[in-house]
Amino acid sequence: MLIVATLISAMVQIAVVLAIAGLVYAAFGRKAGFRRYVGLYRAPLPIVLIGTGIGIVIAATAVAFPSVRAIAGGEGTAIAAALSGHGSGAAWVALVVTALFKTAVSEEILFRGLIAKASIRWLGFRAGNVLQAAIFGFVHLALLAVAKVDHFILFALCVNAGVLGWIAGWLNERHAKGSILPGYALHASANLVTYCTIALLFGR
């Protein structure tokens, strides 16, 4: 039941983001194909692997801090929800689905596929990539604001999200001809390492 619920939730979230992207494309982007408009096409494998490596390194560094673990694995988070199955196989599958699909796919399509590309078209790469990264960090600020944590840690986590967003945009646009796959690889690997490490080593 947990796996089905997680899969449905992931598919709904991705479908909503694709619908939003489709509406924007219909209004502003008909000159290009939809997949190219949002970056849903192949990227050079070495760049995808670099994105994966960056995600793993940053996640492994982040989970070393107890404050990060407390926020990432706290009540109401994906980790807590998945582990409500008390470490069962279904809970782990749900955790992996959440890490790789529910958040990474939808957020990369929205932020690096739709917002970054629109910002870069309007402002050029430098300003556009900074803008999308700042929006990405700010959204995390809004999500993390519900957690009762030190303001400095909250700020640091949001800056970290913004930096990761900037790196993802840079990899995509400067090294993968606009494909969002390197950014997805970075995001998904960071999620997976963070979620599984906290659940395996620190989960209750």
From TrEMBL:
Residues 92-193 form the CAAX prenyl protease 2/Lysostaphin resistance protein A-like domain. Pfam families: Rce1-like (PF02517). The chain crosses the membrane at residues 6-28, 40-65, 77-101, 122-146, 152-171, 183-202. Keywords: Membrane, Transmembrane, Transmembrane helix. InterPro entries: Rce1/LyrA-like_dom. This is Lysostaphin resistance A-like protein.
